[in-house]
Specification:
mainly beta; four-stranded antiparallel sheet; about 5% helix; globular
């Protein structure tokens, strides 16, 4: 789930100042990376303007599918686009492959790269659903639109099948590397839990069952485990707040940690205990590490940077060193590249763009 325009607005309202001691752009070398980013090489920017995020790889490591609200592309809220990974220039416009109606999120290629799955509200109307207002406390919230369902479509945007048809929120689908299963988040049980289904929408199995938001799940390289973000309200006050927000179709994603679980629901374990928001996790090609986005070093909500940690919770390492926002890291299936979204190089605007880099272990 993205709702990135709301997220970035929150961060940027707090501050847009830079930290010259931390950030050391070197335009004479790899101009879109910082010197400290030793795992990144040949960084390329692929979008220019709007909020572009959750860019996920095709199985052949040649294409990306992502969501954007760039008004220059004729959209008012998130729609799904696709592009190759060749170098782009400002003014490039990718192909939109969602319906253009409602709001979409979380698109993911299916095997063969000729079809994909994504979540959309388009059956509830052509207009974008109204984003939530902040409460009296000013807390940042994500909307859990109960009109989201998961669809399968071809690369021309033609819908082939509707994969979920339960009341409430069904979204955040990602596909197993083997291409046989889809994991997604749903509130059909009354709480936000993870489910797995076959790629035709059949054989739905509930994976998690603890109170709190479970979402943003990805399969391990061998397809046997899931990594995901979760909130775990503990105190009576936290539980009441979480349940009250959920009744209003909202979650507050400011306190989340990373968890792993086997695809049959066994072996649940917490990976991080860093505080603040730890999210957008993805497995390193080895299956022994995880990259993710976090603001755990922050006292004021920003910056978000990409970190890497071993699956036993040790060996935390910072990967990116932006002063605002880096997130949604994903390794290409061949393990050679990484895609991520960042506020770097946006000319002081609020745009968040997609970047691709060679990965250096």
């Amino acid at each position: 789930m993205k709702y990135l325009s709301l997220f970035l607005a929150t961060i940027l309202l707090v501050s847009c100042t830079s930290n010259p001691e931390k950030n050391t752009y070197n335009p004479e070398t790899d101009s879109l990376k910082y010197e400290q980013e030793v795992h990144l090489k040949n960084v390329r920017q692929l979008t220019f303007g709007g909020d572009n995020a959750e860019a996920y790889w095709s199985y052949d490591s040649e294409q990306l599918i992502f969501q954007s609200n760039n008004p220059e592309w004729g959209v008012e809220c998130d729609q799904i686009f696709t592009m190759d990974i060749s170098e782009k220039e400002s003014g490039f416009e990718p192909q939109m492959i969602s319906t253009g109606n409602g709001r979409t999120t979380c698109a993911y290629f299916l095997p063969g790269d000729s079809t994909f799955v994504y979540s959309s509200t388009h059956e509830n109307g052509m207009k974008c659903p109204t984003p939530p207002e902040r409460g009296a406390s000013g807390a940042y919230v994500w909307p859990i639109y109960d009109t989201y369902d998961i669809y399968k479509a071809d690369m021309d945007g033609n819908i082939i099948a509707k994969l979920t048809d339960e009341p409430g929120y069904d979204a955040e689908p990602t596909v197993s590397p083997k291409g046989d299963k889809i994991v997604f988040t749903s509130d059909r049980s009354g709480d936000l839990e993870l489910y797995i289904m076959d790629t035709d929408g059949s054989n739905v199995i509930q994976i998690t069952d603890e109170l709190g938001y479970d979402g943003g799940a990805f399969f391990s390289p061998d397809g046997s485990q899931l990594i995901f973000r979760a909130s775990r309200p503990q105190t009576e006050e936290e539980v009441n707040k979480y349940q009250s927000l959920l009744e209003d179709g909202l979650v507050e994603p400011t306190n989340m940690e990373l968890f792993m679980v086997n695809v049959d629901g066994t072996g649940l374990k917490q990976i991080t205990d860093l505080g603040n928001a730890n999210w957008a996790p993805y497995f390193h090609p080895s299956g022994e590490k995880i990259v993710f986005s976090s603001n755990h070093q922050s006292q004021r909500g920003f910056p978000f940077n990409i970190f890497m940690i071993k699956i036993d919770g040790t060996g935390l390492e910072q990967i990116t060193f932006d002063d605002q926002f880096d997130s949604f890291p994903m390794f290409s299936p061949d393990g050679k590249k990484i895609v991520f979204s960042s506020n770097r190089n946006n000319g002081g605007s609020r745009s968040t763009n997609v970047f691709v880099a060679d990965w250096v272990d």
